[in-house]
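Morning!

As promised:
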Amino acid sequence: MVDTARFLADLHDLRKIGTYKTGVHRPTYTKEDMESRRWLMDRMTECGLEPEMDGIGNVIGRHKGAGPHLLVGSHIETQNHAGWLDGALGVVSGLALARAGLPVDVIAFADEEGHYGGFIGSRSFIGQLEDAEIDRLANRYHGKPLREALKEAGLEGRPRMRCAEGRYRGFLEMHIEQGTQLESAGLRVGVVTGIVAIRQWKLVFTGMQDHAGGTTMAERRDAGLSAIRLLAEIDRQFPLVCGPRSTWTTGRISLDPGAASIIPGRCEVLFQLRDVDTAIIARMEERLHALVQESNRREKCPCVLEPVSLSTPALCDQALQQALADAAEALAPGAWQRMPSGAGHDAQYIARVMPAAMLFTPSINGISHHWAEDTKEEDLALCVRVLAEGAARYLAA
Amino acid sequence: MVDTARFLADLHDLRKIGTYKTGVHRPTYTKEDMESRRWLMDRMTECGLEPEMDGIGNVIGRHKGAGPHLLVGSHIETQNHAGWLDGALGVVSGLALARAGLPVDVIAFADEEGHYGGFIGSRSFIGQLEDAEIDRLANRYHGKPLREALKEAGLEGRPRMRCAEGRYRGFLEMHIEQGTQLESAGLRVGVVTGIVAIRQWKLVFTGMQDHAGGTTMAERRDAGLSAIRLLAEIDRQFPLVCGPRSTWTTGRISLDPGAASIIPGRCEVLFQLRDVDTAIIARMEERLHALVQESNRREKCPCVLEPVSLSTPALCDQALQQALADAAEALAPGAWQRMPSGAGHDAQYIARVMPAAMLFTPSINGISHHWAEDTKEEDLALCVRVLAEGAARYLAA
């Protein structure tokens, strides 16, 4: 039913736009990114879909016939110097389902990767992006205001589309796993159970900057040391309260002034935790607060926990999951598993307005956000067939 | 014997060169720094000393009469936006002793503060600075090669002076404490017992960069976490092997790539320890190596200990110490103590070629390397009198 050869050809065509080594460098709203969006609109037209690009750069190809419809897609821009499949896979699989005759709209949400603001495309689509926020946003690498980028991309003044109420029975996003769980287990397909919630904080420790030699250990107030002690305690205690699939990560530690012979007077830590289960998140968050409170009682350098962001888990729809699971068992018996997504995806926002589900392909060596990212073509082909079969079963039910 | 009013007036004059708020910004070889060296040479001439500036910027004023002589001095440049006394105090106290009729040469060693290379002036003076090293050195903030700075300062091609063998019975350096021990104890004079050795390392941890969400806790190799665990272990175990006055400090931690959602694949730590007792240093160093070895057995991210620098402690001469102690007891009975110096000074290098000693004045609030650095004028005046009395007693013995 699915023309997998055409599907793979489309992927290889798309990777030529913004090629970087074996990957792609196609940041949002750049020349290459806009070229890829026009490429997509041409492919949509060829599939018999009606294409449209909106004021935030979302590209949709609408099925011209009667519903019920499914929405299928992902994002089309890339991280800097990253891979050829992250995002592109989900969009091109939509084209494959359309070409196979399924009643799908295909969509590419703008800037899921957050060059300007994470998930602004999908958030705009569900009505959760205000103009005031667009006014505030700027590129995280070079600071160009989003308004300026949209203008340069020719999108200024163009209205932003909203999800048509009642049109879709669900949303499907196929994506690379970005981890090694499928590969390590020797499996080929992942039916996603949900997308983790991410809680992020900045921990700020305040001490007293001073000379490393002239200040005794007793009198110093070393903000870096208080941070290390707290992080070591988190390391010891989180395993006691976490779930089987929880993750927690310290991504950045900054000592100020950061000189070899100066006791740090200030320390900032970026810390985050993830799980798909809200009860487990609550336990870990409670433990974090308790550890910070205990640190503040005991240490000389007080810590302030500044929330940076918090998302809620997005559970994948049970019926959609089952359809995908049945399709996987039919096409890849014993070679699939259910699993959560540790990374955020557009699907987590679309899940707020309709049933949503995701399908994972393996990632070779788990490489992600890197130009060496890759997946075997036979697994890509298998997964798009599972996606189509799952979509068909779900619509038939 | 010492004209303390003139001494204080000299200090206030000198602070006008490169004034910054209540402090001074006079980095080595800048216009202001060279102006201060010429100012010094004029003061030396007035004192009846024969001034000379050499090829590294050392400024010496030689006593014209018979010996035995003492060498008295410190450094005249400052850290960026720092205080008015750090270094200047020791140089101007030398002028005060010369004016009081003591047979002293006065010296300002270049770049003790290490804008280009720490202690290059005093090291050059004792014959431990090769031309090849001067060729390699560059400004640590803006990268200008030392050779270029010397040329711009008009010192190119000028020969570098060496300590005249047999001319001096000792070296004296008065300096602010840069800590709070005198102030906390309510004391006014510190007779320094020795200058700590400083051992510095860069600890490099190597893990695997990966996605914070998509990588399970079991499979990740978080270089930052291995670093935190080791630093926490050092924090626990060093108190068991350290001495009463040891210090150890982590000044910088760098996680790479340092992004909130990326597991660090690499971590660098700048760590140092200080003590005046070589046996204690050996114990702490041994424990550090043992902890790194244990970490490498247990952790997934190996640590490499890269030595950055190691100095040896410089003990102050017993006879010079005693002379200063007797002078302190005579002029400030019960208001002084013996104490080590936790910071490095030119004296630690001069100690390699002659008996050397230091005298500390209190630092208000221990503030150092900051424009708010200060000491009460009555304490400055008291200490220069103790310095002169100590010098006289030592020469008479």
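Residues 13 and 147 of chain B are 30 Å apart (CA to CA).

Hope this helps with the figure draft.
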